[in-house]
Amino acid sequence: MTSERTALVLGATGGIGSETAKALVRAGWRVRAMHRQAEAMAKRFAHWGPIEWVQGDAMNAADVLAAARGVQVIVHGVNPAGYRNWPALVLPMIDNTIAAARAQGARIVLPGTIYNYSPTGPAVLTERTRQETTTRKGLIRIELERRLEAAQADGVRTLIVRFGDFLGPQAGGSWFSQAMVKPGKPISAVTYMGKRDVGHAWAYLPDGGETIARLLDRAADLAPFETFHFAGHWFERGVEIAEVVRRVVGRPDLPIRRFPWIVVRLAQPFMELFREMVEMSYLWRRPFRLDNTKLVRFLGIEPHTPIDEAVRHTLDGLGCLPTTSGVPVLAKG
After folding, report:
1. Which of 111, 144, 239, 317 has its CB 3.0 to 4.6 Å from that of 196, i.e. a possible disulfide?
2. H helix runs in 238-306, sequence order
3. How much of the chain exceeds pLDDT 90, in percent?
4. pLDDT of residue 82
5. Are 83 and 283 in contact (CB under 8 A)?
6. Can you give the residue ranges of the NAD(P)-binding domain (predicted)?
């Protein structure tokens, strides 16, 4: 709409943060991004468009408050990498964002997860599905959303868009890039983390960013505390995502390997990351499908890139496709 709308993006170099920042720029927003190395990021990501990079740390309340001056929206896209130190980082960061939003009268946008749901709960998740779990990270995410909902009493508005696992050109910290393929190397095999015949949901990051931007274009129609579920790409047979990789690289004979969960379980006493991975492994043993009925009713459509195109752009962004003169060589068909 107009350039007077300004959004602050926290976590702008991450997957969903980067795609939301770019989508907001396309939609006519002024976008400000806070980073601990703002000058370097401004040079590195200059091709994203006219984004104002400001120095700051999401763990520093004064930094967030200063960065949020004059904004109408704060996108809270920060998340501790590699499952590290969630108890000490996740809730203090959301408290800083809430304080800044309260001071500015800004709306908070939170990319939600399915961590909030129990291993024994329903397989299809709607916005009304009860949030309950016993995992540490799940309980933290539930508390995070509880604090956002409670902040309504102070006039803080929140939009939550809940996603499945991410894939996309900027999905550097996702299961896709950290386990399924090896970034920077040609694909010689694909690893699949779950039971092959158990369904799994994937969200293509550019579609997610576009969805958030479209929802914010209708901010006047949003409730003070609003949640939408993003369906993305659903595979009844979870292993189909690996079969798509085969198709995109033109290698129908490409091996699909099992993720070494046994090794991870044996090593978990010695490695924090492995302990956290084991705790969340139930997400690969049973289906969790996000029902987007409410989102489609509100927007009329869910942005949806065809899966072959989404995987192709993901592999290209991760440096996994061969190139000729800098141009990716794509599979035919």
Report:
1. 239
2. 240-249, 261-267, 272-279, 293-299
3. 85
4. 65
5. no
6. 11-117
The DSSP H or E segment spanning 175 is helix 175-175
DSSP string, 78-105: ---GGGTTHHHHHHHHHHHHHHHHHHHT
Q: Please state, in angstroms and as integers, the Cα–Cα distance from residue 286 to each residue in 102, 197, 236, 277, 282, following that order.
A: 39, 9, 11, 15, 6
Q: What is the pTM of this model?
A: 0.93
Any idea where the domains of the chain sit in the sequence?
6-167+201-234+286-306
Instruction: State the Cα angle at 311 between 308 and 316, rounded to 5°.
Output: 120
List the CATH code of the domain at 6-167+201-234+286-306: 3.40.50.720
Q: What is the DSSP letter of 306?
A: -
Q: End-to-end CA distance of the chain, in Å? A: 38
Contact residues for 54 (Cβ-Cβ < 8 A; gap 6+):
32, 33, 34, 35, 38, 66, 67
Name every residue whose Cβ is closer than 8 Å to that of residue 96 and which is 6 or more positions away in sequence.
58, 59, 60, 61, 64, 65
- 2 vs 189: which has the higher pLDDT: 189
Q: Which two tokens stand for residue 325?
A: 């003169």
Task: Report how far Cα 164 is from the mean position of its chain's Cα atoms.
Answer: 8
Report helix, strand or coil for 248: helix
